[in-house]
Q: What sequence folds into this?
């Protein structure tokens, strides 16, 4: 299974927005990160409520890392089949995007666009919204619970940095109890190094995998 895909980190309350005009019709596309398919209905309802004069509110949601088994939810909202949500989905697939939702509201301008024109318009709107969004690498991380004394925790913390993970939470009392996330590709090395370098005093307890986005490095980054 692939461990990395692309997503966007723009949230539902501050989506990336792009407007495409075609022969007097306006297509306003919004794209945001989606953590759970259960959020789709509420987000689409909010967009619809904010655009009472829109003729159509089309949406496409995609979730999941594995391209062969992603969960896709889509609606043409009355547009002819194949002219609205399908072109949007093709934009997402061609760019390798997942865990995101695109909603496109259409204001009819009085001129019929035809099937080809509609498909091109929805595709252009989706592409524009994606271009305006902040993209990120969606990585699978393994989660661990760790308990250690302070000296052993210092060793664990150095290992976490070496394998590209991070401490997600920590409780400092007589010992340190913490949550750690490590890229799936480094999970085996992390477990082995912790046991070896603490002489078996610390054994990470796996809690399962989670998907987390991290922004793409800019050209100026090392």
A:
């Amino acid at each position: 299974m692939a461990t990395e895909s692309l997503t966007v980190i723009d949230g539902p309350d501050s989506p990336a927005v792009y407007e495409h005009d075609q022969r007097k019709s306006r297509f306003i596309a919004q794209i945001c990160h989606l953590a759970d398919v259960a959020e789709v209905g509420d987000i689409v309802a909010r967009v619809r409520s904010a655009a009472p004069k829109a003729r159509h509110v089309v949406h496409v949601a995609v979730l999941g890392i594995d391209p062969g088994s992603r969960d896709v939810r889509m609606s043409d909202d009355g547009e002819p089949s194949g002219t609205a949500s399908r072109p949007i989905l093709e934009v997402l697939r061609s760019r390798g995007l997942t865990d995101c939702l695109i909603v496109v509201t259409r204001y009819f301008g009085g001129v019929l666009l035809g099937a080809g024109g509609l498909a091109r318009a929805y595709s252009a709107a989706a592409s524009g919204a994606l271009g305006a969004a902040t993209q990120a690498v969606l990585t699978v991380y393994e989660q661990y619970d760790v308990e250690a004394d302070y000296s052993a925790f210092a060793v664990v913390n150095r290992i976490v940095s070496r394998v590209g993970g991070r401490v997600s939470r920590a409780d400092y009392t007589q010992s340190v109890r913490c949550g750690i996330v490590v890229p799936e590709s480094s999970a085996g090395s992390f477990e082995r190094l912790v046991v070896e370098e603490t002489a078996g005093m610390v054994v990470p307890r796996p809690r399962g995998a989670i998907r987390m986005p991290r922004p793409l490095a800019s050209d100026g980054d090392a």
